[in-house]
Design a protein that fits this description.
16% strand; alpha+beta; three-stranded antiparallel sheet; 90 residues
Length: 90
Amino acid sequence: MFASIMSKSYVSLHLFPVYMFLDLLKGMSPELKKRMQGKTCWNFKKAEDALFAELGEIVSASFQRFAELGERDLTREDAQALWGKANKKK
């Protein structure tokens, strides 16, 4: 669901549910958006409590979204339906 990477100069948080649930990022503050590297990664050089709290809300929401899906394996079609890109038969 997520990964954390530490280097000498920063810490990264990768939150993979954002790929499936793009709406998790709606309403994200400009300050937190500045910390984004790519679509699902945030980098921090120092502790920023307000941004950590905001990111914590996004992490909690992502857990909630997965809980709503229940325990099951997701198919490619499931993921596409979540993204609103269901395959159209030709």
